[in-house]
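Hi support team,

I submitted a single chain yesterday and got back a structure, but I'm not sure I'm reading the token output correctly. Could someone confirm the output below corresponds to the sequence I sent? I've pasted both exactly as they appear in my results page.

Thanks,
R.
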Amino acid sequence: MYKHILIATDGSELAGKGVAHGLELAKGLGAAVTFVTVSEPFPALAWGGAMAGYVAADELTNYEEGARKYAREVLDKCKADADAAGVRAKVLHIENKAPAEAILDTARAQASDLIVMASHGRRGIGRLVLGSQTAEVVSLTEIPVLVVR
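Hi R., thanks for writing in. Yes, this is the structure output for that exact sequence:
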């Protein structure tokens, strides 16, 4: 059925449920997995002020280094979980992109036939105000998406 599953994670406890569910599914199907985590671009508002170029450059460097370190930790754990479950897996860290865009691009590039993501399950105004990367992925993809709550 599914041969290659893309599992998106931000490292949160909720995303961990999506990772676990995706791994269980992959194991049962004998599917390969790609884990992806995304670091959003450095906030544009951080560039304001008279000394902005000097201060923001340091902040940008700190932000990027911190994001890389966090992504490495998240993805190392995912890979270890996959190895323990006997699931073939690779990991990707996408930098400086909106999460939904990066997830969709990665799913296409990796020829994924299923995307697994977690969602907080917000409804109504909360979903509109807070936005939802999961809702954006679901609405813009032709690849099936399994949403884990």
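A quick pointer for reading it: The first strand starts at residue 4 and ends at 8. Let us know if anything else looks off.

Best,
Support desk
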